[in-house]
Amino acid sequence: MSTPRDTQPLPPPVLELRGIRKSFGANAVLKGVDLSLRPGRITALLGANGAGKSTLIKALSGVHEPTSGEVLLDGAAVDLENPIAASRLGVRTVHQRIDDAIVPGLSVAENLVFEQIALGEAPTVASLTSLLPRARAVAAALSLDWDDAFLRQDVFELGIADCQMLLLARALVTDPKVLILDEPTSTLSQSEAERLFETIVALRERGVAILHVSHRLAEIDQLADDIVVLRDGRITATQERPFDFAAAVTSMLGEGATRDIERLEHLVGEQVALEIAGLRVFPESPAVSVSLRGGEVTGIVGLIGAGKTELAEYVFGESTGAEAGVMTLRGEPYTPRHPRDAIRRGVYLVPEDRAAQGMLPGWSIAKTFSLPFLSRFARGPLLQQGAETARAAQAIDDFGVVATGPGQTVDALSGGNQQKVMVARWMQTPPDVLLLDEPFRGVDIGARREIARRAREQAADGSCVVMLCSDVDELREIADRVLVLVEGRITLDARIDTVSDDEIVQSMTEVA
Ligand SMILES: Nc1ncnc2c1ncn2[C@@H]1O[C@H](COP(=O)(O)OP(=O)(O)OP(=O)(O)O)[C@@H](O)[C@H]1O
Ligand SMILES: [Mg+2]
């Protein structure tokens, strides 16, 4: 009979960090981190945006050289001098920024065995056909139903979820001892995340030591054997099961941050803000008509590919494949042909892929902040700069952005802090219609509550707030009304307090 995993003695660590420090110039990010990863265990790494999680992972995977400290593998000191050295030693990493790791212009198969190609261990890029058997085998081992057409396709065509799976698959091409995943689920839907979890659990069973970074507590509860909390460059707590999440959140954010989310006082909007009639979200989908009211938050849920983003882009004047319907905004005709038109009418969209859309490298937080509203503040450069800096400073404070100040460039911010800046940017002035596409993605719990609080406050002031998401828990934190979208059709429209999670999930998978 097998013993339950909690009562088994702990295996010795495969990877040990001792006193790891890392500074960028005068900015000390890691201040002496000790951490052990054990075979067959999943360690969840928690920490607020900017705590240093990705920096720690980069130090572990040979991207950054630690300023000081020691790394031991199977008890012996090692030098993880570069990513190839780390991967040779069996330490494999899927980094947070996936676009840096994908090689554009190459096929899926080539990206999959990229490292082997680079090391001369696989046929060259010129002979895609000769790579296919190897790529097929890797895909099959991971139960990915990738056919040859998919493997031959340019990675440019892939959605974000497939890119994420591709990078995981790449990390598993050679058997890893240690697998490090930096927020692998922040871009996935629930069902895609479940697929990823199956793979992670299978690797745990095979004795791989796994370090998993996530801001989603439910997911950590489902997967992790251990929790480690990083705060401001130091480990402030470690836990084994059963976890005390309230204590973990306190050591992550400090006292006072664990206030429960106030129970939603449900809002019921009286006035129609945006009326959409006869819209085909996809050319082949039926025409839908829907009225969105001011004074309440409407949550639109659906799986990836349901048409949420297309709908939002249509309303924001970034029309994609959506076939022209007729829109009315507060009773007046509304025909945005460009986001400029939408912004002028007070219709804002916080896009899903924030880093790619609207973040300019080298720009300060303050400049990034006022970019879409330039005409409004164009009253002479000096005046503008003062107002700009003041508003950015306020937002940095409200959303808890970890930054040196409004003048810091957006590139050096951690992933979650970049996202906070982009969400905060669209929440600085009262909108008429505010569309938030996956607003909680990658932000820590503190910012998540701030975003929810702001969205509800703006709705209470009469704005029409629309949140697009694929997670029912997230929906419940913010919405008054729920619309379920399946392939461009609305399969459920209800007050959120009248439907169960099961009913919502069922309507999300309803087929035509
Ligand atoms: N290359 C760099 N140069 C300068 N500063 C950096 C660099 N990389 C990271 N930092 C700083 O280090 C701090 C920690 O960033 P890191 O990306 O490790 O945070 P994180 O815990 O992963 O946050 P998130 O949850 O948002 O991903 C941030 O304040 C960031 O600005
Ligand atoms: Mg990070």
From TrEMBL:
<dbReference type="InterPro" id="IPR003439">
    <property type="entry name" value="ABC_transporter-like_ATP-bd"/>
</dbReference>
<feature type="domain" description="ABC transporter">
    <location>
        <begin position="262"/>
        <end position="512"/>
    </location>
</feature>
<dbReference type="Pfam" id="PF00005">
    <property type="entry name" value="ABC_tran"/>
</dbReference>
<dbReference type="GO" id="GO:0005524">
    <property type="term" value="F:ATP binding"/>
</dbReference>
<keyword id="KW-0677">Repeat</keyword>
<dbReference type="InterPro" id="IPR003593">
    <property type="entry name" value="AAA+_ATPase"/>
</dbReference>
<protein>
    <submittedName>
        <fullName>Sugar ABC transporter ATP-binding protein</fullName>
    </submittedName>
</protein>
<dbReference type="InterPro" id="IPR027417">
    <property type="entry name" value="P-loop_NTPase"/>
</dbReference>
<dbReference type="InterPro" id="IPR017871">
    <property type="entry name" value="ABC_transporter-like_CS"/>
</dbReference>
<feature type="domain" description="ABC transporter">
    <location>
        <begin position="15"/>
        <end position="257"/>
    </location>
</feature>
<keyword id="KW-0067">ATP-binding</keyword>
<dbReference type="InterPro" id="IPR050107">
    <property type="entry name" value="ABC_carbohydrate_import_ATPase"/>
</dbReference>
<keyword id="KW-0813">Transport</keyword>
<keyword id="KW-0547">Nucleotide-binding</keyword>
